[in-house]
Amino acid sequence: MEFLVRFETFLPESMNQEAVKALKTAERQRAIELREAGILKRLWRVPGRRATVGLWQATSATELHEALASLPQFPWMDVEVETLATHPQEQ
Questions:
Q1: Helix (H) or strand (E) holding 33
Q2: pTM, entire model
Q3: Which domains are seen in the chain, by residue range?
Q4: I need a labelling partner for 87 at 20 to 30 A (CA). Which of 13, 26, 31, 72 fits?
């Protein structure tokens, strides 16, 4: 199944810069792992925001949730998920 995932990250302003840097590094590493596993297919930034749109692939919504929840920044993310279906013109 393919999913369109939109999320925006809201890190606490009180978080120190070293913690933010470490969190971003861990997030990048986990995204690489998810790409290698074939779960994270594509990512786009939303200009002017700490928001991302991504194309994800998982066998179920539960598997997708587990992948998203494994992201280090997940506790600070506002996530929206849309399940995608193949359009008849694509067949």
A1: helix 17-36
A2: 0.91
A3: 2-86 (3.30.70.1060)
A4: 31
